[in-house]
Design goal:
Distance between the termini of chain B: 19 Å
Structural class of chain B: alpha+beta
Distance between the termini of chain A: 54 Å
Order of helices and strands of chain B: HHHHHHHEEEEEEEEHHEEHHHHHHHHHHH
Oligomer: heterodimer
Number of helices of chain A: 6
Largest sheet of chain A: 9 strands, mixed
Bound molecules: flavin-adenine dinucleotide
Shape of chain A: globular
Family (chain B): Belongs to the acyl-CoA dehydrogenase family.
Keywords (chain B): FAD, Flavoprotein, Oxidoreductase
Number of helices of chain B: 20
Catalytic activity (chain B): a 2,3-saturated acyl-CoA + A = a 2,3-dehydroacyl-CoA + AH2
CATH architecture of the largest domain in chain B: Orthogonal Bundle
Number of domains of chain A: 1
Number of strands of chain A: 13
Largest interface: A-B, 20 and 19 residues
Protein name (chain B): Alkylation response protein AidB-like acyl-CoA dehydrogenase
Order of helices and strands of chain A: EEEEEHEHEHEHEEEEHEH
Strand order of the largest sheet of chain A: 11-10-9-12-8-1-6-7-13
Helix content of chain B: 55-70%
Number of domains of chain B: 2
Largest sheet of chain B: 8 strands, mixed
Cofactor (chain B): FAD
Strand content of chain A: 25-35%
Strand content of chain B: 5-15%
Chain lengths: 245, 602
């Protein structure tokens, strides 16, 4: 089984977010980068599937050279080889086109990625890749088992769970508890260095979206505690202050 | 791939009489991407497996600690510095230091880890025969077997060579029969393998044995009820006619004390280095709490008194880190040089560690005392919550305390530092006499009024550092002259001299690292490091002056005392610094980042 796992290179969840250049650029100073947490689950499941069924795992990242440490971490966790599309991942459609272009070449049985990245949280790439490749895409996938050429999937939907069976190949946007996230072992870290990391040029489709301005969400205000006996005040606050009634 | 700095030719103990350039020292910022990834993975292990289970660990839940050790083994954490031929990763000494550093924040687990990978594994690795290594090391490196180290006895603690445990050859000559009692044995509760020190017949010195639990004749008392590291197994171990095959003697008869001492060198430096991540996480927690806790309408982190504590934690930790990795790389360089000369790798490691045993002891003391500073002030920052088991500080406070006691108490280590310095001087291995005589001459000469150019950053600190070394040479030289071999009985003075040497080593390492970082990040980009360095240095100078003054007043009087005190004054003279501003600047970064002011391994 050939598995492609697409990973994002995103700021650590505890990073302080700020902007430069008149709020048009993300300020990278002091920011630590990690594999997108949802992608981490996808990768962990790929490693487990490989252990069960054999095969190979390729990780793919659309990003500039600075993402290579993140890619090598994925190799350390258990991917066999890596491909980096040498381009800034400017918008979801651009990234999806790059992934589709690489994926078409590789004839993968499974294309896994996180349900969304944690920087822009678009959650669009998996379905775009599906459309571009004419393959089914499912998200958010919480259980993924393979039997022969069929996958058994559990997906979270509004108010419940959906169980489905699907023939490979397809695209899955993954989230916990699909697998337990993996800590790279020391030997994996040492062997990551000698695993192939291929850098390819992007397809020349232009970038379609541009950032005009970034804005931070308003700071959270202090919580107001209302006495459980005092329903009138609660209604008053909800009506006149929060304006939700 | 392992990062290496320019090779240093400095020998152990020579820091006192020679200058080192910034290029010669290794700084942790220079760890390779791979080493940093290992550190980050180790941190992930702590976050995933240890931190959520702290209470279960401290309640000694049956089977939990050994299973955590096995998980660590699966990740390769137990065999980082074990050669590949024996199932390890074959990384250098400083990478092993890095693992100890990160594991440090795991409390009880850290002791189990240290006892297994250090004093439990290393005696075989360094002194074992090829067969012994093949048989045991791979099992230890994967965690399949857990090890403990049985040296201490009820009547033989600091005086370890006075142990009464006996080994007697069996009539058929095939076994040694071991009888005796050991005490305070970490990991004893679940160990499969015991490194046991015993005396054969009426030998004066100990012999070491590799004892498998399966041999039988081993019983134990219940777990000790301890002040801290409550989750670490610590038991008394009894050997009752325990039959050990003769081929399980380690090294030669009566070589056991030497093994114990040499293995403790590694244990010590790793214990000292193995406080760093603990200090960092305490500083981070304290900063976070200080930011969140409001009194008098503001965050308590806005108070100068609290900022002082936070900044001190950062500066002291920075110093421990600078000294640890500098010494670690010196040891690596020495190992490599000895292997280059054709020495067997295990022997080379031992020899190199022996060469740097003074630094190992320095780092053990300095690290353990900085940790204690951090936990103590950590409790204070938390106020009443610091005293509550609901907050993390109470546990940290209790867990930290053991570090000053085991692997040689800090008193024993202090005496070792001065003792080893003087011994090497006597043997002619370390030229203390020449520089000490030069200092003596300088004392009676008219002071030079030449003003060196001190405009460059850290130029003054470097200039003062040279003089600090002179102050230590002056005090140690005078004490040696006064007491001769009887200096050993003057423990009060030895303690003062040891403290002077510890501070000199830590301060020098901190200055050199900062200088290197200034070259790396530029003068503006390295402001934080400069501030921590200046703050640390200022404190070090004060301490050195106090210890020196007190020491000389213990054994000189009248005019001689005056000359000595003049010397101390001259050799510790430095421009006063505005420590309030330094501390505020450091604390500002911490408050802004809501954690320890810099991170190295993400
Ligand atoms: C939790 C824990 C885990 C341990 N794990 C192990 C282990 O795994 N294996 C093992 O073999 N041992 C272990 N030890 C033992 C430890 O190494 C000893 O406790 C330590 O060396 C001190 O010995 P002692 O307790 O007998 O104290 P003592 O030697 O009685 O010391 C008491 C005090 O006297 C001072 N003192 C002693 N001699 C001198 C001197 N000559 N001059 C000045 N001061 C002196 C000491 O510094 C100390 O302050 C452990 C201990 C503890 C508490």
């Amino acid at each position: 089984m050939k598995i492609l796992v697409c990973i994002t290179h995103v700021p650590d969840t505890t990073s302080k977010i700020s902007f430069t250049d008149g709020n048009t650029k993300f300020d990278k100073t002091g920011v630590q980068y990690i594999i997108g947490p949802y992608d981490d689950y996808a990768l962990a499941r790929a490693v487990e599937l490989k252990e069960q069924h054999g095969g190979s795992i390729t990780v793919l990242n659309v990003g500039e050279a600075e993402t290579e440490p993140t890619i090598r971490k994925a190799l350390a966790i258990g991917a066999d080889e890596a491909i980096r599309v040498n381009a800034f991942p400017s918008d979801a459609f651009f990234v999806a086109k790059q992934i589709a272009s690489v994926a078409k070449e590789g004839a993968y049985d499974l294309i896994l990625m996180g349900r969304e990245s944690i920087d822009f949280n678009g959650g669009q790439v998996h379905s775009m890749v599906g459309e571009l490749m004419g393959l089914p895409s499912v998200s958010p996938v919480m259980v993924l088992d393979i039997e022969g050429s069929t996958a058994k999937i559990q997906r979270e939907i509004e108010g419940g769970k959906e169980f489905m069976e699907l023939d490979m190949p397809f695209i899955a946007g993954c989230q916990e508890p699909i697998a337990e996230w993996k800590i790279p072992n020391m030997r994996g870290i040492m062997s990551a260095r000698s695993k192939p990391l291929q850098v390819v040029d992007p397809t020349d489709d232009g970038v379609q979206a541009d950032v005009e301005v970034f804005e931070l969400p308003p700071a959270k205000e202090a919580v107001k505690l209302v006495d459980p006996e005092n329903l009138d005040e609660l209604v008053n606050l909800l009506k006149n202050e929060a304006k939700v009634l | 791939m392992e990062a290496v700095a320019n090779k240093s030719t400095l020998k152990g103990g020579e820091f006192l009489i020679k200058e080192t350039s910034a290029e010669e020292v290794f700084i942790p910022e220079e760890f390779s991407e791979e080493q940093k990834m290992m550190a980050a993975a180790t941190q992930d292990f702590i976050d995933k497996e240890i931190t959520p289970n702290r209470d279960r660990i401290d309640n000694m839940e049956e089977g939990l600690m050994p299973s955590l050790m096995e998980k660590a083994g699966e990740l390769g954490l137990l065999g980082v510095s074990v050669p590949e031929a024996y199932g390890g990763l074959g990384m250098n000494f400083n990478t092993g230091m890095l693992m100890a550093d990160i594991i440090a924040s795991s409390g009880s687990f850290s002791t189990a880890y240290g006892a297994h990978t250090g004093i439990g594994t290393l005696p075989i690795l360094y002194y074992g025969t090829e067969e012994q290594k093949q048989k045991y090391i791979p099992k230890l490196a994967t965690g399949e077997w857990k090890a403990c180290y049985c040296l201490t006895e009820p009547d033989a603690g600091s005086d370890a060579n006075s142990g009464k445990t006996k080994a007697k050859l069996s009539d058929d000559g095939k076994h040694y029969i071991i009888n005796g009692q050991k005490m305070w044995i970490s990991n004893a509760g679940f160990a499969d393998l015991f490194i046991v020190f015993a005396k054969i017949d009426d030998d004066k010195n100990l012999t070491a044995f590799i004892v498998e639990k399966e041999y039988g004749g081993i019983t134990m008392n219940d777990e000790e009820r301890k002040l801290g590291i409550k989750g670490s197994s610590t038991r008394q171990v009894f050997f009752n006619d325990c039959k050990v095959p003769v081929e399980n003697m380690l090294s030669e008869r009566e070589n056991g004390f030497k093994i114990a001492v040499n293995v403790l060198n590694v244990g010590r430096i790793k214990l000292g280095c193995g406080v760093i991540n603990g200090c960092k996480s305490i500083a981070s927690e304290a900063t976070n709490y200080a930011n969140e806790r409001k009194q008098f309408g503001v965050s308590i982190s806005s108070f100068g008194a609290i900022q002082t504590k936070l900044a001190n934690m950062a500066a002291k930790t920075y110093a421990v880190e600078s000294a640890s990795y500098r010494a670690g790389q010196n040891i690596d360089d020495a190992i490599e040089a000895l292997i280059g000369e054709g020495m067997d790798p295990s022997k080379a490691k031992l020899k190199a560690l022996e060469q740097f045993s003074i630094e190992c002891a320095i780092i053990k003391i300095h690290g353990s005392e900085v940790l204690d500073y951090c936990v103590d002030e950590g409790v204070q920052v938390y106020g009443g919550m610091g005293f509550s088991e609901e907050a993390p500080m109470a546990r940290a406070y209790r867990d930290a305390r053991i570090t000053r006691i085991y692997e040689g108490t800090n008193e024993i280590n202090r005496m070792l530092i001065v003792g080893m310095m003087l011994k090497r001087a006597m043997k002619g291995e370390l030229d203390l006499l020449g520089p000490a005589m030069a200092v003596g001459k300088e004392l009676t000469a008219i002071p030079s009024f030449e003003q060196p150019d001190l405009s460059a950053p850290l130029a003054e600190e470097k200039e003062v550092l040279k003089k600090l070394k002179k102050s230590a040479l002056m005090v140690a030289g005078k004490a040696a002259e006064t007491f001769g071999p009887k200096l050993n009985d003057e423990q009060e003075i030895l303690m003062h001299i040891a403290d002077m040497l510890i501070e000199i080593y830590a301060a020098e390492s901190t200055i050199l690292r900062t200088e290197k970082l200034m070259n790396l990040y530029g003068e503006d980009g390295s402001k934080l490091y400069q501030n921590m360095c200046k703050l640390y240095f200022h404190e070090a100078v004060q301490k050195i002056k106090n210890h020196g003054d007190e020491a000389v007043a213990c054994f000189t009087e009248g005019d001689e005392l005056k000359v000595m005190l003049m010397g101390m004054k001259r050799f510790t003279k430095s421009t006063p610094v505005n420590t309030r501003n330094l501390r505020r600047a450091i604390a500002d970064v911490m408050i802004r980042e809501n954690k320890f002011p810099y991170s190295l391994y993400s």
